[in-house]
Amino acid sequence: MELTNWAIEFVKARNAFTRTLREHSVQGDVVTFVHKHKVHHFLCLERLSVPVASDTYTVVCLNAEENLAFLITHWKEFLQPSLSVIFVNPQQHAHWQVSPKVHAMVADEETLEEGLRSLASEVPFLS
């Protein structure tokens, strides 16, 4: 399943509980969801990169070792308010998610890699 379609289905499934989603649109790698009280952008990339986020933003990428290593290496650049990263293994229908700004507030920097690898271990990496 393509990451864009995964993101759309993910948000629609969550909306079954909240019922706040009004509409969504796709423009390139970005899916924009308009909810009653906010706009939420999902940037869908197979290979993780640092986004320039201005609103509520989620980056969706494949759950691969390269993407996890990129997040760890560029951690400080991901410390943006209202930014989340979802790592997806579409073959296993599994994902894990981290909000770097929040994670940094509750975890210590010395165990960052260990903590992220622990989260990642819950979902098999793509080969």
Q: What's a concise summary of this model?
A:
The protein is an alpha/beta fold. The chain is 32% helix and 30% strand.
Percent helix, as a range, is 25-40%
**SSE order, one letter for each helix or strand:** HEEEEHEEHH
- Give the DSSP E fraction (strand runs of 2 or more residues): 25-35%
User: What integer is the average pLDDT?
Assistant: 94
Shape: globular
Count of alpha and pi helical runs: 4
Low-confidence stretches: none
Using only CA atoms, what is the Rg? Answer: 14 Å
Write out the strand line-up for the largest beta sheet, numbering strands in chain order.
1-2-3-4-5-6
Structural class: alpha/beta
Q: Give the terminus-to-terminus CA distance.
A: 16 Å
| Most strands sheet | 6 strands, mixed
Would you count the extended β strands for me?
6
Note down, in words, how this protein is organized.
With 127 residues, this protein is an alpha/beta fold. Helix content is 32%, strand content 30%. The longest helix has 16 residues, at 3-18. The mean pLDDT is 94.
